[in-house]
Amino acid sequence: MTTHPISAHGLERSFGTLVAVDGIDLEVEEGEIFGFLGPNGAGKSTTVRMLVTLLKPTGGTASVAGYDVVEQPNMVRRSIGVALQDAAIDPLMTGNELLKLQAILHGLGSREATRRSGELLERVGLTKAGNRRVGTYSGGMRRRLDLALALIHNPSVLFLDEPTTGLDPTSRLSMWEEVRALNKEGTTVFLTTQYLEEADQLAGRIAIIDGGRIVRQGDPAVLKDEVGDPTLRIEIGDSIMLDTAKAVLTTFGEWRPARDGRLAIGLEGGAKRMADVVRSLDAQGVPVAHIELDTPSLDDVFSDATGRRLEGAMVDDEES
Amino acid sequence: MWMTRRNLTRVVRMPSIIIPMAIMPLFFVVAFTGSFSGITEVPGFPTRQVINWVAAYALIQGASFAGLGAAGSMATDLDDGFIDRLLLSPIRRSSILVAPLLYTAIRALIPITIVMVASAMSGAAMPGGVLGVTLAYVAGVGGGVVIGAFGLAVVLRMNDIRAMSVVQTLAFVVMFPSIGQVPLVLLSGWMHWVARINPVTNILRMARQGFLGPVTWADTWPGLLALAIGTVVFGAWAGYELERRNP
Predict the structure, then answer these.
(1) At what angle do helices A139-151 and A110-123 cross, to 10 degrees?
(2) Over 80: is that where the pLDDT of B130 sits?
(3) What pLDDT does residue A251 have?
(4) Whole-angstrom distance, CA of residue B149 vs CA of residue B172
(5) What's the whole-number mean pLDDT along residues B207-230?
(6) Cα–Cα distance, B140 to B130 (Å, whole number)
(7) E strands within chain B?
(8) Which chain A residues are closer than 8 Å to B92 by Cβ?
(9) What is residue A12's three-state secondary structure?
């Protein structure tokens, strides 16, 4: 038995010549919400599938709830609750039936299954819809049911793979509340998300994965502090003046990745230098269309580690 | 049992699933009886009433639809990710395969019963008595289970709902070169050779014997052996594919 509910050392997974997860190390503390961030295709889901015993690692070791994921997969399965990204819910069954089936699959007796199903339907606000076919549920209701299914056997470790993807803001907030409540009750939560705000709101610690490797890991506040200077983003009103603007900005800090049409630097000295920047640009006749100063975000943490923007990458992925 | 119940619930909620299984056996009985009625005049044909001959083939064909249903159910679970829910639970892996096969066995009773009733109404004889009827059911249910196990293996191997077309094609290709439509003595060339070694021939002989005369052990054991080997071999293959997918 290890002291960590989730730990991985040199965990690897290859598919032929493609290395999806390239030797990651993780240690999740008991009772924390651990955020696992990364763009699409970074290796998040592959990592989760290995940790929950759906996929065998091709290298390294991992244990969950103190059990080795390869040697003791059934003990791992007894200890964890899993809500995967695509809620695998049979649309022809009712919420109540699915909960009972899940309970039986996890070894609960028929009477206990009925009691626990009712309790969880109430917890996720689906009591009235419990006897309706899942095919008639909204996206938010399906996610809540999926969460209830993951909790049926009172797991000590809960894996939530992108639990709010595709949900409207209200449903997202409601899911966050539920995750917080579960965590307060002592459940360790491993939360995979592509929403930086979600990780910021919920996670006590995070790991950022990119290209199958963990590029940053730790307390979000500390990671943001480590990025250093706040990011100054400027949109120039006249593209002819772009080179002049670049020459001015170079004197105020190091370049940071920015979206097309914008310039971004890490502003040395922080907010108090902002007026100097504006004055210098004005003195050179550079028209400023938009200017903003952002304290470091998790996106900056990602950018600092990889040279790319996480949010931009996701937008690109979603659009493609 | 709960997983089998889930499959049966799906049938109740989506009755269209069983329409092919209910209609096709009737179609086989009517079509084969009509098309092959003259064949009873051929010297060496073992019965004067063609329904006595085609009933067994129709019930095996009908039961095979039940087997395809098991494979289809697994293909749907793979497609929508429900299989992950099963794999994430601490149940024995064999249950994931046994449940759809048990479901197949129950489902197969529908087309077999339809064929038996339709055959009786068409004047089929049953000199084999209760034992003959029982063996017809055993052959039908067993045949459905073998097709089901084969289908599960192929679907798990291909990991795709499109595997169903492969399963259907192979299942019917295997059934065709057998004694389904005409006796072995009336077949010639490669067809005779293939039908003689085709295990489907043994299963059909077991199912058919009660319609043609008294039940004999000689016509029974090869069919039981074919069913046992088919279930074990294809079941083991499906088990291997499941293990390969989720070690």
Answers:
(1) 140
(2) yes
(3) 92
(4) 15
(5) 96
(6) 15
(7) none
(8) none
(9) strand
